[in-house]
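TA notes, week 10

Several of you asked for a full example with nothing omitted. So below is the full record: structure tokens for the whole chain, then the designed sequence directly under it. When grading your own attempts, check the secondary structure regions first.
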């Protein structure tokens, strides 16, 4: 039988992560827009409900209902609880912080994923990759210049930090879940359980949906469904320590969206920090591919 090259699967995981980050950047901008009118749990429930529709349409078209079968239900429920916490804290924080401030805090999640993957998933992270991730995080600090201006209210900052922790833990559950579940079933369970949890908490203070907000909610659902599917693929194809650092590209997308739609001109600090982030990411790609090629060559060579 032909041996599968590990570099190919991990590069697919990286590509999926880059695509997921793009769609989530669009969704986050839309969430910021609608969060000024509705509570965090209501926005979270609307996000999950709208994304569920886009997920189920192709499933119904193909008649592939068996792809929604869930295994290891306890892990699905754990992931849903973490996901509900992640969405609530993110939406609460993004109402008060700018996209740049929000991303500067939430982008600590890849570093947390790398650190937590060691004790929780027993993965080995080379020292040079730790250095590259640290350099990427320094690039974020260059962009934000935290000493030059404040980060908003302390509660919003703590909420953003909590969202990063919830996200890191939630992402680490994907790899063990992927061993017994399809990508579709994992996205389905996340949207279903997080949506139900958020809906139950939102009902007491539910606000009527404005007619003009329905197209935005639909766009949130579509971008969220695509992002969630691609994110799940990324973490099922490659270890968190490999794909996690590419979360840094969300900062670039966030500023690009601000520039295109709100004419926010990038600063010199942004350009310098972006160069640092991109350089760090390129190095991680090169290092991962080099190690995978060495392992493949060693395994394929005759004894």
């Amino acid at each position: 039988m032909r041996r599968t090259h590990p570099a190919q699967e991990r590069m697919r995981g990286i590509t999926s992560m880059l695509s997921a980050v793009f769609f989530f950047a669009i969704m986050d901008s839309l969430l910021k827009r609608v969060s000024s009118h509705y509570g965090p749990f209501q926005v979270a429930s609307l996000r999950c409900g709208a994304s569920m529709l886009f997920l189920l349409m192709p499933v119904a078209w193909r008649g592939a209902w068996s792809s929604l079968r869930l295994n290891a239900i306890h892990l699905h429920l754990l992931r849903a609880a973490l996901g509900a916490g992640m969405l609530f804290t993110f939406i609460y924080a993004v109402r008060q912080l700018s996209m740049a401030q929000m991303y500067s805090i939430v982008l600590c999640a890849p570093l947390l994923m790398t650190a937590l993957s060691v004790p929780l998933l027993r993965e080995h992270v080379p020292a040079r990759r730790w250095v590259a991730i640290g350099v990427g995080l320094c690039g974020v600090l260059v962009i934000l210049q935290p000493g030059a201006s404040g980060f908003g209210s302390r509660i919003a900052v703590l909420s953003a930090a909590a969202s990063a922790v919830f996200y890191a833990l939630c992402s680490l559950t994907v790899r063990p879940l992927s061993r017994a579940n399809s990508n579709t079933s994992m996205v389905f369970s996340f949207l279903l359980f997080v949506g139900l949890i958020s809906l139950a908490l939102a009902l007491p203070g539910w606000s009527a949906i404005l007619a003009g907000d329905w197209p935005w909610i639909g766009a949130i659902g579509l971008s969220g469904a695509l992002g969630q599917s691609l994110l799940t693929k990324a973490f099922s194809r490659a270890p968190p320590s490999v794909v996690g650092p590419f979360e840094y590209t969300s900062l670039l997308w966030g500023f690009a969206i601000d520039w295109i739609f709100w004419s926010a001109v990038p600063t010199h600090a942004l350009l310098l920090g972006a160069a640092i982030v991109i350089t760090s990411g390129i190095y991680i790609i090169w290092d991962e591919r080099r190690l995978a090629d060495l392992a493949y060559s060693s395994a394929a060579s005759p004894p």
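The CA atoms of residues 5 and 296 lie 6 Å apart. Use that as a sanity check on your answer.
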